[in-house]
Amino acid sequence: MSRPTQPQPQPDDDDPLNPKVAASALDFLLIELVPLAQRITEQLHAREQALQEEYRRSRTFNQTASKTLVGSQQGQKKSQGGDGEERQGMVGVSADGSSAAAGTSGGDVSGAEGSGVTSLGFPVMSEKTRESVYWRLDGMGYRVGQGLVERFSLHKPRPTTPLDAIKFICKDLWTLVFRKQIDNLKTNHRGVFVLTDTRFHPLSRMSVDRRTGIKGAEEALGRAQTFLYFPCGVIRGALAGMGVEVTVEASSTEIPTATFQIKTKGAKA
Q1: Rounded distance, CA 178 to CA 39, Å?
Q2: Do 195 and 171 belong to one domain?
Q3: pLDDT averaged over every residue in the chain
Q4: In the structure, what pLDDT confidence band is assigned to residue 47 with cuts at 50, 70 and 90?
Q5: How does 216-242 read in b/e, with b if 16+ C-beta sit within 10 Å?
Q6: Is the same domain home to 91 and 141?
Q7: Does residue 114 register a pLDDT over 60?
Q8: Are 209 and 260 members of one domain?
Q9: 185 and 223 within one domain
Q10: Which of 44, 173, 227, 238 is the most exposed place for a label (fewest CB within 10 A)?
Q11: Is 151's pLDDT higher than 80?
């Protein structure tokens, strides 16, 4: 008599002994992602400027050396004409060299960029740095979103419409990543969806300096915007994994509320 076979547990079963995501590790990741991306971007920009400055100096040195060589050759040819003409040629060469050196030192001064801090001591991002940080964090989130969908929708029916895919984001994916569902979902039924999270987890622990008034609130909203780049990438990557191509924009008018506007390809506002 054969023993009855026990059903094998599915990998998507809600088993506390088989956690899907380390929540604490994810919290630390979301907190450190923005400062890390900013430091990496600033280091890359600094290295790029250093390489450009080194190239400019080497080019100036080569031009000065070529002028010196030409001047010395002309001096040798005109040596029979008298010592006065030779000294005049050498003075011209030294004048070129000194002017080149002055230009090099002036470039060092102009290359330095001023850096500022906010009222809470956070470094202020330039527009170039902010744009690079956006693309870096959005790309990271895109890969994370694709991986999450591949892992956690393996044994679930595939969404057949963009609305079903958005509902999967609001209920399943948001609970998985941020431990709560989206609070509000609106759509115009023409490919535009607006997701509102009234207590977005990455923004819930941000502090605002109330003593500075409106300036402190504006600085806090500016910092909050950078923490929305990664979730935008997660949404875009997750929907791409389900076959829905979208563009995602995020904004925050009051901490810790976050609003995500999703537009499918070919959507009409």
Answers
A1: 25
A2: yes
A3: 77
A4: confident
A5: beebbbebbbbbbbbbbbbbbbbbebb
A6: no
A7: no
A8: yes
A9: yes
A10: 44
A11: yes
**For residue 130, which amino acid is it?**
R
Q: Percent of the chain having pLDDT more than 90?
A: 28
**Could you tell me the residue range of the domain that residue 244 belongs to?**
127-264
CA nearest 104: which of 48, 63, 66?
Answer: 63
When pLDDT is cut at 50, 70 and 90, the band that residue 152 belongs to is confident
Q: Quick check: 224 and 250 in contact, CB under 8 A?
A: no
Q: Rounded to 5 degrees, what are φ and ψ at 262? A: -115, 130
What mean pLDDT is predicted for residues 123-145? 85
Alpha carbon distances (Å) from 236 to 68, 78, 146, 178: 59, 73, 8, 16
Q: 174-221, pLDDT tens digit by residue?
A: 998 888 999 999 999 899 999 999 999 888 888 777 777 788 788 888
pTM of the model: 0.66
